[in-house]
Structure formats: structure tokens, C-alpha cells
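Progress against Task 2.4 (sequence-to-structure conversion) is shown through the following example record, which the project officer requested during the mid-term review.
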Amino acid sequence: MATIRIPKKNLSVNPLKSSAPMGAALAYLGIDGAVPLFHGSQGCTSFALTLAVRHFKEDMPLQTTAIDEVSTVLGGADHLEEALINLTKRMKPKFVGIATTALVETRGEDFVGDLQGIIARRDELAETKIVLASTPDFAGALEDGWSKAVTAMIEALVTPGDRRDNPLRQINVLPGVHLTSADIEELRETIAAFGFTAVVLPDVSGSLDGHVNDAYSGPTSGGTRLGDIAEMGRALHTIAIGHHMRAPAEALQGLTGVPTTLFASLTGLAPTDSLITLLSHLSGQPVPASVKRRRSQLLDVMLDGHFHFGDRRVAIAADPDLLHGLALFFGGLGSEVVVAVASTGNSPALADIPSDEVIVGDLADFEAAAAANGAELLVTHAHGRQAAERLGLPHYRAGFPIFDRLGAQHRCTILYRGTRDLIVDIANLFIAARPEKRPADFADVLAPVPASLKGETTHAPTATC
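C-alpha cells generated for the chain above:
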């Protein structure tokens, strides 16, 4: 069990974490026809908007209630009402997801009561589903905001009651914020191979997968449909990925009675085997040949790649569930996680990380620990690139945000295929960082070359015909 250490610092020099409202906004963006609304100042929204646009390379419909100095003191209910009315008139969303920020949370307003009153007296909002999640910046990070937003959507949009007397051949999927669009697509295809339909909440593979629409759309285009969310109670089973999805999974099971299986990670051979076994059991079908083939490919790449992972010293900085999954991945291939830095300490995943110590800190802590422990690879998001440059180490980008490389959402790192590709990518980093041996490097270990082999002779050569 890892020891969790929280450095005593008065400030974060180089922040690792992204805020909880940012996580909530990403969850809301996984709903079809959605507009996330930050209840706070314009600055709170603009910072999150910048990160999201740089990461996804897409325009984002993030909106704000634009709380000013007077509203900060007297209350922001009027700003919330005005923002909702303007959004419904101008953008016509099917769904508005509200994420509160630290600015309004510190005043202690009754957000739920304010929203109920607004919806009751404004007929213009009758056709729009509106959900609010309390996500102050000072409590938690990206995973926490995502989890709270998903829980709020389940409680507000899922039809309650045990409806399994007439079940659909459906599997509910509650993905963690660390899963990319490609991860969700891979998971959906695997579930479909067993004859099931997957309802993913939230589904960023439909809205944030980098597609070009035929016509401009202000709200999100693609994602989980509101009608499918309502019918999640008719599924056979629910699969949740990541410890931060435990609360949403428990909320869904409590509302509908649909049983849940939570996977801490789906990266690696063993966790993927567990998922495939579950799907085979639920479907009553043998594992499809295509899935077996992918497993065989992963085994082959594990054999090819483990030479490059053995005894490597790796430093990882990420949100807790991503950190946990990556640490298990590296440990399973023979590497040693010498530095593990988490963005927040409120996750049970941290205690199970295969490292002597987990630091709850920032990228300054990460860089110092990596240098002190002789790390050979840095694994973190794009903000770790300066540390990698200063330390002269290879850098594998993982997490949010990744803004200095293309295709972050199209990179799959789960199940058999994704784990295979992850091994290849990191093994190639190790290979590229290894200095190439030249003949001069072997001079001190080679025996002297005999004079006869150097072309030296002691007599004139004899002519022959």
C-alpha cells in the first residue's frame, strides 16, 4: 500500500490539476444538443474554454452567467435566470448543464431553490432539460466535477423504478473522464460484438470526436440522447470505469435496480479479460473470434515489448484514476514507478498504486521527485513538457489537457487493442531515447586486430595466374 504525502506549500507553482467545473463541463458536452453553463464570472469560463479548445481543437459552446461584483455580494439568481432565457432563445439547446464555481459557492446561495423557482415561472424553459451540479473550484479536480455532473444527470433524467421485467438487450456504460473518444468507441464495439447495445453516459465519442457537421450547430452535435438516458433503467447491467464513477453508478443502481460492475481500469491484459468474461456471461455467448484475435495480438506485443520496459524507472503525474491505471500498466510490464503525483487526494485509488509513495501535489513536486529518483520517462499531460525538456527525458503525454500534439481524442489505450498500441508507443519512446551504439563505442572491449588482418605483409606478394 502506497504512503500518501501532501507537501506543505503555500501555493501551487506549476499546477497539475484542472478544476472541478471543467470536469463537469466535459461531462455535459457528452450529451446531444447540450450547452454547459458556468455559474460564475467570465474569467472562470474563459480559462476552461481555452483549455478545452486547445485540447480538442474544436469550438466549444461553454457559456457563463457572467457574475459581476454587485451580484457576488447580493446574489446571482437574476444572472442565472437571464442566462437561461438567453440561451434557450439564441441557441435552442435540448439540455443545459449548470456547473457552479467557487465565486458563487463561497456566498452560500440556494442554487437548487433558485433554479426550481426559475423553471416554475418561466414557460420558455419548459422544453429544455436543465441540470445543476455543485462543483466549486476549491473542492476536488477534474474527476470530481465529472463525477458530480454525471450523478446529477442520472438523478434528474433517468426514469426511476425497477423496470427490468421488460429489459432491453442493453449495457449501460459510465466512463471516467480519462477515457477518450477512441476508448469509448473501442468499448462500444466490443460490447456490440456480444450482441448488446451500449448506452454511454456521457458519450464524448459522439460529440467531441473531431467530426465536421453538414451545418453549424451551436449546441453539441452527437453524444448521449436524452431519451436513451431516460431508458437506462431497462438495461441488463451497468459498467463503470474508474473509482470516481462509483457515486454515479450507485445513484443509477439505487434509482433503477440495474446491477453494476465497477472496473478500476480497463488498460492491461487482466482487467480486459475480466470485462470480456463478464460480457460473455451476460450474453450467454462464447467470446467472438475477433476479440480473441486482438488478445493474441496483445500477447505478442507484450512479448516483443517487455524487453524495453524491464527495470525502467517511470514518473507519472495525473488525476487519481488515470494515475492508478498507468501505474498498474507499467508495473505489469516490469517497470518501476519511482514517482507518482496525484492531482487530488480524495480517491481510494491512490492507496493501491504500486509505488512506495504517492505525492498529492503539482508539477513542481513532480519534476523535483523525478530528478531525485533517477526517472527515465515522464508521463503526464502537456504542461509537463518543460520539465521533460529541463531534465532531458522522454515525455509521454497522458490526461487532460494535451494541446501540443494532434489526435489526443483518437488515441485508444484500453482493452486489448488499446493496450497493444500503448505498449508500442511507449516502447518506441524508450528505443528513441536510447543512444545509438557506434563502432568507436566498442573499441575498449574488442581484441587487437592481428597485423595479418590489417593488410600488413613482411615480403613481396607472389604473382599468380
